[in-house]
Here is the input.
Amino acid sequence: MFSPKKQTNKPETSTAPKPAAPSIISSDLSINGNLNSGGDIQVDGTVEGDIVSKKLTVSSSATVRGAIEAETVVIAGSVTGQIKARHVTLIKTARVIADVVQERLSIEPGAFFEGNCRHFPPEGEKKVLPRLEPIKPTVQSETSTSTAASSPSPIAAGS
Here is the structure.
């Protein structure tokens, strides 16, 4: 009746953790500080700080000022700073002023992008670029003469 239960040696089944729901920064929220997430972040408001996440979505109403590092970045709003991601997509409403380091970049017609863009190869595919020799300027011979541009003469009024 009150005997202890027999313990059976059942193997424990490991279940993969379910992906968490994305963290959403709503349109009426303004954050001044860094965000760090192992999951997804959707920004509808304003973030002044660096963001690190697996996937970042910046909606058309959002503004981000800071560095972004993620696997995937989709931007429809405004971003000023630096972006480092495997896949970067700029939607037609995007306004990005940033240096972008990426593996794949997509820019829809109508998107505004100002900054430098640099490609990095996929992991495990380290490419060694050949060394380029600097271009040597051509030297003009000493016999050539340079002519200064003459200033245009004024046009007489009422001719």
